[in-house]
Amino acid sequence: MGAAAFAISALLLLAQPAADGAVQLQRAIDRVIARNPPATVNDEALRLERLAAQIGVDLAPPLPDRPHPLLGERDLVEGLHFGAYLSDHVESPEDRLAPPSAAITSFLSERAEPLDSIRAVLLSERAPRWAMDLAKGKSGEPDPNSSGPLVLQRILLTKALVEARAGRTSEADLWLGASWRLNESTAARPTMVWQLVAIAVSRWEAGVLRKVRSADPAWIERTKFASQRQRAFAAMNDDFVIGFIDPVAPEEFDKWSPGELLSGISKSVESLQRQDPCAFPRAEADRYWKSFFPGPIEKTLAGIAMPSLGDAAHRLYRLQIEGELTGLVVQARTASESEPPRPGTSSDVDSTVCPGARWSSLALPDGGIHIRFAGRFADWPDESGIRPPLEYTIRSAASPRP
Fold it and tell me: For the chain, which ranges sit under pLDDT 50?
């Protein structure tokens, strides 16, 4: 059972009784299971686990017969600070590409063979798939290690930046493609922990793509992150239900009914879907849900579950606007390489993410292009993680990278 669902199940003893509680809950469980049919681990996932373990990354579920790296290898990877190198570039508002540390360069060189094999697995015909059988609850195979993909993604995206800096655009494209494929694979799991991983990785990908002079037109559609939005909102509902798949003691339904809980969650998620992504301040995360939970349930949920969904939604909103900027950068760079804009030329385009907001672009004297968000996004000052600026300067293709 997830932490939020566990807390709710404990506190819901205060709620009103409902004779049909078991039926309501089972129907919700059946719907979630039907949308997420059982799957077994495939050869690609097993091979990826073995290769990742060779470079100090643990992707496998906590099972003794699956490959896990030595603790010293894991510590080595963490000590290289791939995340700091990646974040510095993702949060940079222009095309600058700095060299990685000597330690990172050495790591990538010494492990070139397993890294190339990892990329090959990720770009093969079949994507990795890990086992999942929601109907079995806790008796099913455990999830893969949720922190492992984050570690591997930092390495894959660092490789993309290194190749882009060296002018090997096609290679950088391949590393980006491998990152995308891994993220799509892990994001297929219907719980919020995996959606938060996917959102974090997608934000890194959006930032790295701005640095890569990609020729792959698929990225224009990918940077809309429509499938990620759909998966995240579905998981906000499903995650709570999944937490109750393991049977609840029958006598509990004499004390509370899940009907009001499930209805309130559904209405809260619907409100987040309708929300203007650019106008969701921190204070709203503490109140957007309250009208959907009348009576005692409001007290039981206050400050536990709904604000965390608001936090996830805000990260998703930030991803959408960052992705829109990345799409504009890719399009502007492609257009300028075939027909450089005249210096001083400016243009505006409506944002498809934030109603009433616009993006402004200006052609620079050196042949570059500056794109900025001519609107306001309600950032949360205390929100952890990266925060790329909503503006970017594209250097002219003739200009050397710093």
Answer: 1, 6, 10-19, 302
